[in-house]
Amino acid sequence: MTVHSYLYGRRRPLPEGEYADYFDIERTAFVSVDMHEGHLSADEDCPCPAPRGRAIIGAVDDVHARGRELGVRVIHVRTGLRPSGADDLNGIPSAWRRPFAEYVGGIPNVAAHGLEGSRWTEFATEVLGEDEVVVSKKRLSAFYATDLDFLLRQAGITTVVLTGCMTDCCILNTAFDASNMSYRVITVRDCVAGTNEELEEAALKIMSLNTGLVMDADDLMVAWKQLRHG
Fold it and tell me: Which domain range does residue 190 map to?
């Protein structure tokens, strides 16, 4: 079966022999970004709603489960800000807070977003005992002010597979940071969600040209079974 990925929004066969180094399962880990209640709760008090993210919870759990069966590690990353506000509102606020809130018409409980120890930092996706968890994400990238890079290098990981939200900010930033640090990056197109369809598609096109591969979950499974090392 032919392996496919997306290039600038077009699904096409991977050039034969060009990307085999992306599919070494023993050196691969999922990095699932911000799939927590602070984005995904349907509660009216949700501090930073990402309603498109709710629709992919099942898909994210499914692709992680299928990956685990093949031996792929799963790392869950979530925002974790000090309750004092020193990391954000009482220090230098995150840049997204004002324009994004303006765009969506206001977020009444946004001050509670990401506060460590709150119910908003509970994962909405399945976290198993063998998974790893990173809980100190401070800004958009899963690498910034966290020990994610240390964890990946300790495990000998060379390829990161991105799932989660939001495609046009946290996933995009994480993909660029991972690529800049010389990780191979695969973004799972049907397991990430963003602000809206327009920004999702723009971000996926950018990542397909500049950070690595963009693939559907089923295509990723085909690739792992056909192109993996060993």
Answer: 20-227
User: What confidence tens digit (pLDDT) does each residue in 106-138 have?
Assistant: 999 999 999 999 999 999 999 999 999 999 999
Nearest to 21 by CA among 185, 209, 202: 185
Strand partners, 85: none
> Residue 193 is which amino acid?
A
> pTM above 0.85?
yes
Asked if residue 229 has pLDDT above 70, the reply is no
Q: Is there a domain that residue 46 lies in?
A: yes
How is residue 183 annotated by DSSP? -
Look up the CATH number of the domain holding residue 38.
Answer: 3.40.50.850
| Separation of alpha carbons 148 and 40, rounded Å | 22
- For residue 63, is it left (φ>0), alpha (ψ between -120 and 50) or beta? alpha
pLDDT of the residue at 230: 43
What is the H or E stretch that residue 69 is in?
Answer: helix 57-70
Strand partners, 214: 6, 187
pLDDT at 227 (0 to 100): 73
Distances (CA, A) of 6 to 153, 154, 185, 189, 192: 28, 30, 13, 9, 14
Q: Is 14 inside any structural domain?
A: no
Q: Write phi, then psi, for 40 (nearest 5 degrees).
A: -105, -10
| Total domains, the chain | 1
